[in-house]
Amino acid sequence: MMGAVRAVLTLLPAVAVLYVMQQNTPGYGEITSPIVIQGKAGERVEGRDFAFAAGNIHLARAVKTQSFGSVREYTTSGVWVLVEGAAVAKRESLTLMSAEWRAPSGVRYALSERFSTLRGYLPTERLEPGLPRPVLLAFEMPEAEVRGGTLLVARSALIPLGEELWIDVGEKNPTDIHPSVALERGSSTMPWILKVE
Amino acid sequence: MSIRQRSRLRRRLFALLAAGLGGIAAAAISFAMAVYDAATPNQVPVVAPGEPVDTGRWVVTIHEAYLSPIPPTGTKPFEPDTFLVLEFDLDNRSAATSNAFHELISIEKPSPAALPGPTYYLARDKWIASAINPNMPERLIAVWELSSGTPVPQSLQLKLRREIYKQRDNLYGSPGWFEDGAAAMVELAVTQGRKGAPL
Questions:
Q1: Alpha-carbon distance B27 to A67, whole Å?
Q2: Cβ contacts (< 8 Å) between A108 and chain B: which residues?
Q3: A41, A168 contact by CB (below 8 A)
Q4: Interfacial B residues in 88-107 facing A (CB < 8 Å)
């Protein structure tokens, strides 16, 4: 009788320890998630392979682009968030293929793919080491998700343990929403001209 | 054989018997559950057009199906052609922007092999649809090009695929969305030309 009680008493803590370990083991997604580098908008955020700085941020209800002489208007049910920034590669030529806007709720809005041809757009710009390039980012999201957002920039969303810059937009966030913003063709040093209409 | 050895043997025999009976019971219950599941398949609800269907990852509202001589881009094809057009609303219920809606809607009747895969257009842009953001429902247009030999369907039965979120999948233990049968069937007539309100 005493032996059975002792066996149960030694088993119980073991079961408890195993349960806690099972519940707290990080999943595959967490183990291979990108390495976060924190930063702030308005300053240069340094990664190992690249650096990125977010500058002006504009909000708009519609975006107009020009291609081959015709104007295309891109409307949205929410709001367009346009980020003007600069990026530079540090060790080898690369292209930054992934950018996301992380709302305070944790929902991630990926870089819009609706523009087919836009000069200076982040995934189309090839970055060379030591030569900073102006880059443009555009996101679409409901109005309520803009405030308190974080800009996530990475080389690719698929590389396990790659680096990802988490840029706190915080005070850089504008409050006024323009009815329309036009992106016109610029020069080679500044590939686009952003005009508020 | 001493008394002590005999009692140890009896204990081992008892443990073996218990484990064997447990295993047989587990196998029997698992088999019975499989037979029960096969005997009572889940009834897939049939939903009318215009009703939102929660498929897990997406909320889909099928609106109408019609035949059109021009694709949603408005560019008339060089050779006369017929397009089977399906308009629907798509709401991303997951936590990230996604373009994984191409397998969501499939044609059950007429037989699916008769048509090639559709092209998806965003009604807002009248251009090829890219990824859909969460919390931002969009009107999409699926277009099947009917080649000249294909019979023109009078009605469609569509299957909406259900997807479930797994925190840890069975292979790597990574989070993801996985197919889980059909969420609903939608039956609707194919009309000549568009009937709905202008986009």
A1: 66
A2: 95-97
A3: yes
A4: 95-97, 99
Chain mean position to CA A187: 26
Domain layout of chain B by residue ranges:
1-41, 46-192
Among B96, B99, B136, select the one facing A78 at the smallest CB separation.
Answer: B136
Q: Per residue of chain B (199 residues), what is the pLDDT tens digit?
A: 677 787 888 889 999 999 999 999 999 999 999 999 889 888 889 999 999 999 999 999 999 999 999 998 888 888 888 899 999 999 999 999 999 999 999 998 887 666 788 999 999 988 999 999 999 999 999 999 887 777 888 899 999 999 999 988 888 888 899 998 899 999 999 998 888 777 7
Q: Is B125 on the interface with A (CB under 8 A)?
A: yes
User: Tokens standing for A115?
Assistant: 């523009």
Q: How are beta strands A50-67 and A45-46 bridged, if at all?
A: antiparallel
A108 touches chain B (CB under 8 A): yes
Pick the CATH number of B46-192 from 3.30.160, 2.60.40, 2.40.10, 2.20.25: 2.60.40
Name every chain B residue with its beta carbon within 8 A of the beta carbon of A142. 135-136
Chain A contact probe: residue of B90, B92, B97 with most A CBs at under 10 A: B97
Residues 6+ apart with CB under 8 A from A22: none
* pTM tops 0.95: no
